[in-house]
Write a structure and sequence with these properties.
The structure is a homodimer. Chain A is α/β, with parallel strands linked by helices. The first copy, chain A, contains 16 helices and 16 strands. In chain A, helix 5 links the parallel strand 8 and strand 9. Chains A and B meet through helix 3, helix 11, helix 13, helix 15 and helix 16 of A and helix 3, helix 11, helix 13, helix 15 and helix 16 of B.
């Protein structure tokens, strides 16, 4: 297949918008990039898709979420994190979570995400095998962080059971083209030191990443100071988890010294501004982290605290939040946000060798955006329009591994009617 | 015509979502509301439009913007207000503004707004007569604040010329069904005391509102303290402008005493969070204003500082900004934001007797939102989904005065190809 868009935004090299450039795809990868005529001549038997009112860019990487929580969106509105978890989310989960819930909720999340340009998501939820199978079937790229929680829950009897199931998941998807796996201890406070130490050892042994909620609120940090005499970052450092394998989500409460330490250790950070603002968790110091050399990706978090999964909207919010917080309009400019939503997320998930930019040899995870729509014209600054207007609504085509998973209101790899019917089913059941 | 939606969100009464209710329209007004069968039986010759996957709500009221500035969107990215105006916007305007620019830019803005559910906009820009004619032709509701600026510009030789043109505009559209007019002094700092006093006298004489940028930044207020020994609010009060006719836009820098004064005087406030965050102007204390009893509407501001005109996105941002700023997740809940984006805006523009809610006798300014889309399901909390997910992207039908102005990617009242072509023309011309 040869895609010939009006504009190509490759992300690498950074801050470039090319015209007259086609992309040839072969075996799910980008086979070549070049002038329209040249690419077409070199691939005479390829199907040509002309996208003459479109900008083609890498698929977005949603670096943190809980996909099946789409089924809970709109519950627990107007609560702060602690109350939202304890009074709304955990009781609902204890009552309703099973493999069917995860299947239906994950499929709904995938339908929503591909429709607004996301091609990869990092998931952290119960029944990760079910989620992984749903994503593989739908042709969607997933990092499944298998949950590690000490408390018994509908998915597992405790930490050891979580670990057994998680390692089996890892084995099953070892060579998968779409699904990667990693350790998903919920948080330092919910797992405990002994189990965290075990995660550190095992992650090192099997060379896997660790995805964790960390320093989500100041209250969480204050708890650590009370119980451990140091912040959770300090605790993780002692336990051997504060290293280049760590994907640390939220990170709103950080001292300058901690930012330096995190940078030194090669920890990757995932910023979820909508969730943090809605649950009043705090503000991640993204600009300082970037200045210190830390890799930062963007996440929507679960739909229950968002209430959608549109990563373009998240990029817009991250940019505005950084500018307003520091009263500096130059912070997180649009081109940087496009990078954070694509290659930054890929780096945060350790997938930058495969996705995040349109480069020869990388996976053909691509998104076409209609830039002829009245909301996108005139296109003086494509990066700014992508970030600051509602570009998620303008996505017309989404490809993962070269396979079309969304096109103009249709979902070629999903039974959308069934997906909708199951969502409505849960809507009545949970209300 | 009878519209039979799955859900009806009337806004008045507040915080209600009705099922099984149809709306009959006659002569551009809401003629009746009631159970589907009853309304259909009472209007046997009406065309029935079944919206069985939709929520029907009042059209959104964008209470502040500069419509033709769509043509400048994406210019002056990453600048603060003062530099953005002085280095980018004013030079561009001085060079390019003419009636053709305003015609093309306004038409583009209308196309964008109706596609995301806005049925009324407050405009403040050069060549307001051209903008009014474009909106009337497109069937879009407009409040045209005619510009009053002391400096010569491509539209006028100075204040008196502005006034002559503005009053002629007011006469021309006196009985118009779609266009209302009011005085639009740019700001206290750009107009000067003598001319402001004249505006106060004339606004009183002709019983017209006054729409003004006020206390947009702390720097603006500091200037007043330096030049006038008091804030602009104090200055306007002395000049006789601080009253129930005043539509005060931005209002980021306010003392508690000023909030009380503004409430006492019946001043209406328009909040533009995206523009304020992007240009780092400050944060309007919306919650305090509402608590003091002040009417607050929402505005996108011009597309050049936004970069879009999606009022649903503005509602989301306003809610998140209020919660995060005060660390209180209960602030500006979703139902309040839906009201602010509709009836609140109508009140801010003095149009609440005609628009802002679905009530018998009011204008049939209505919007249908596809709530069956994966991003809106399950619909546990319709208000939360409208505000916190990207509902602007889910708008399928927009009616103004009962006339369909947008339906599923088509614009029945606009030549959309010509609108696009003109936008592209300005895109090349200005770059």
């Amino acid at each position: 297949m040869v895609l010939s868009p009006r504009y190509l935004l490759p992300v690498a090299p950074a801050n470039r918008v090319l015209e007259g450039v086609s992309v040839a795809l072969r075996d799910g990868r980008v086979a070549s990039l070049g002038p329209h005529d040249e690419v077409v001549a070199n691939h005479p038997r390829a199907d040509r898709v002309t996208l003459d009112r479109h900008l083609l860019m890498p698929g977005l990487v949603n670096a943190h979420g809980h996909l099946a929580m789409t089924l809970l969106r709109g519950l627990g509105e107007a609560q702060a994190l602690e109350a939202w978890l304890a009074e709304t989310i955990w009781p609902m989960e204890a009552r309703w979570i099973d493999a069917e819930f995860v299947r239906d909720g994950t499929r709904l999340a995938v339908a929503e995400m591909v429709a607004c340009g996301t091609t990869t998501a990092a998931d952290m939820y119960y029944f990760p095998e079910t989620a992984a199978l749903v994503c593989r079937e739908a042709g969607f790229r997933l990092q499944a962080a298998f949950p590690l929680i000490s408390q018994p829950n509908p998915y597992s009897t405790g930490f050891d059971d979580c670990l057994t199931k998680g390692l089996a998941l890892r084995d099953r998807f070892r060579d998968d083209d779409l699904v990667t796996t990693c350790f998903g201890p919920h948080s330092a406070y919910a797992v405990g030191d002994e189990h965290l130490r075990k995660v550190a050892t095992l992650a090192d042994e099997v060379d896997a990443d660790v995805h964790i909620h960390l320093h989500e609120t100041q209250a969480e940090v204050d708890d650590a100071l009370r119980t451990h005499g140091g912040t959770w970052i300090k605790v993780l450092d002692v336990l051997g988890l504060l290293n280049e394998k760590l994907q640390a989500v939220h990170m709103t409460a950080l001292t300058d010294a901690e930012i330096e330490l995190v940078a030194e250790r090669g920890v990757r950070v995932i910023h979820c501004p909508h969730s943090n603002m809605k649950l009043t968790s705090g503000v991640c110091p993204v600009t300082k982290l970037l200045d210190a050399g830390v890799t930062v990706g963007l996440g929507t978090d679960g739909a229950a605290s968002n209430n959608g999964l549109d990563l373009f909207a998240e990029a817009r919010l991250a940019s505005l939040l950084a500018k307003a917080t520091a009263a500096d309009p130059s912070l997180l400019p649009a081109a940087d946000m496009v990078e954070m939503a694509t290659l930054g997320g890929a780096r945060a998930l350790g997938l930058a060798h495969r996705i995040g930019s349109i480069e020869v040899g990388k996976c053909a995870d691509l998104v076409a955006v209609d830039v002829d729509h009245p909301s996108m014209q005139p296109l003086h600054d494509p990066h700014a329009q992508l970030v600051h207007a509602a570009a998620g609504a303008r996505v017309t085509h989404t490809f993962v591994n070269g396979r079309c998973v969304y096109e103009n209101g249709t979902w070629p790899t999903l039974d959308i009617d069934e997906t909708r019917a199951r969502a409505a089913h849960w809507g009545s059941r949970l209300s």
